[in-house]
Specification:
alpha+beta; Cytochrome p450; 2 domains; 3-stranded antiparallel sheet; 17 helices; 9 strands
């Protein structure tokens, strides 16, 4: 009870408005996360309390465009400024791949070295090497491969035209096949079967497990249960399959030097001289590339298709544009994709950062030291302060000359790929 009173009245972030239960305890937010309601809960708080709100005893959320720059001037993700203590290091039998289990205070986390989870120095080094694979010329060289996968998708869907089809599942299969091919030079070959690759199935299982990780960060008894759960044979086997699958693809690709392949591994291997990435970093980074690209592209495709079908006038307009210019003009398609991502962002959370020991100013507000701070994408994209008629699908707001009603839209608030040196490397 004393801690709750302190959090509400005396904790440094207490100046920010928000629900008392959120100010006093971490569990309401963690419970919402486990129930899959994190985004909608934070959006409700913003609607009631304003553009700057307190969503946990040590966490603040913004929905303003000006907050993006301030938040991303602090490169530390949540917990990054805390020291890591290795509690166990073990080797998967029959492999040469070692992965570590790290412990933050009351947090167990299985992790790989990669440019998302790394410190600022390692992030810059790894991202510089990986960025060669995202150059315009490198991506153009992959056009034929991507087109081939799309044609396979269309054939498979055409063969099932008389039956009900889960299009989201097919988009998952498509995007993970494409991302595997982009990364390793070979796909999962899941499209011809119509079934998700076991690697992808294991990945979706890990997403659900992350909710327990969030809970274990705050409550020691859950942390103890989580550690016991990780020792269960079924869980350990899923972890082994997940990391083993990536390791095998990496090692197979490292043994093949095909000059005709323009996959990400080619650029990683050919530019991996000074400040080289070690095997663990390569495995971790390629895992992030496949996971992030596959999952978020599938969400974007599904959402865009949904809104286009619900708005046949805009669908027809996009089709006419592509037919008239042989696909050279994509203004309408790009506007529709932007609007779909605004209404249903693929990564709708807060992209939390930690303010460090000095605190930072974010959009005119001083955020105290050691506070988690972020811009909630869903709240920013749906705020009437940023967008006129924010709940309506209106791609015309993204055109070079939008209708007058959208003239004052604050498009700077729209950052679906985040901002700063840690923004999404696949933005272009």
């Amino acid at each position: 009870m004393f801690l709750a009173v302190y959090n509400i009245a005396f904790h440094p972030p207490s100046k920010f408005p928000g629900p008392l239960t959120r100010a006093a305890f971490a569990w309401p937010g963690l419970l919402g996360t486990c129930k899959g309601q994190y985004v909608s809960d934070v959006w409700d708080i913003h609607q009631k309390y304003g553009p700057v709100v307190r969503i946990a005893p040590d966490a603040v959320s913004f929905s303003t465009s000006g907050a993006w720059k301030g938040v991303n001037s602090c490169f530390l993700r949540m917990g990054k400024n805390k020291s890591r203590k290795t509690i166990s290091v073990f080797q998967i039998k029959s492999t040469q791949f070692i992965f570590l289990v790290y412990s933050f205070p009351r947090l167990i986390r299985i992790t790989l070295a990669n440019f998302v989870a790394s410190n600022d120095v390692d992030h810059a080094r790894i991202r510089r090497i990986v960025s060669y694979g995202f150059s315009a010329s490198a991506l153009r060289a992959q056009d034929g491969m991507i087109t081939s996968h799309i044609q396979t998708l269309m054939r498979e869907l055409s063969a099932r035209i008389s039956t009900k089809t889960d299009i989201k599942k097919w988009f998952d299969i498509l995007t993970f096949d494409i991302m595997s091919h982009l990364t390793f030079g070979e796909s999962f070959s899941a499209l011809p079967t119509g079934e998700l690759d076991p690697f992808t199935v294991d990945l979706f299982g890990k997403f659900k497990m992350y909710n327990l990780i969030y809970l274990s960060r705050e409550y020691g008894w859950i942390n103890s249960l989580f550690k016991l759960m990780m020792k269960l044979p079924s869980v350990a086997e899923q972890q082994r399959r997940y990391f083993e699958g990536t390791r095998l693809k990496v090692e197979k690709r490292m043994q093949t030097d095909n000059p005709d392949e323009h996959d990400f591994m080619r650029y990683i291997l050919h530019n991996n001289h000074e400040n080289a990435m070690d095997l663990t970093e390569i495995i971790g980074t390629t895992t992030v590339l496949v996971n992030g690209g596959g999952q978020e592209m599938a969400v974007c495709l599904s959402t865009t298709l949904y809104f286009m079908l619900k708005n046949p006038g805009w669908l027809k307009r996009s089709q006419n544009e592509l037919s008239a210019d042989n696909g050279s003009s994509t203004t309408c398609i790009e506007a529709a994709i932007n609007e779909a991502m605004r209404l249903h962002p693929p990564a709708a959370g807060n992209f939390q950062r930690r303010t460090g020991d000095s605190g930072i100013f974010v959009d005119g507000h001083f955020v105290p030291p050691n506070t988690s701070v972020g811009v909630n994408q869903y709240a920013a994209f749906h705020s009437p302060a940023n967008f006129h008629d924010p709940e309506r699908f209106a791609p015309e707001r993204w055109l070079a000359s939008p209708p007058n009603e959208f003239f004052n839209d604050n498009t700077a608030a729209f950052q679906p790929f985040s901002m700063g040196p840690r923004n999404c490397i696949g933005k272009k």
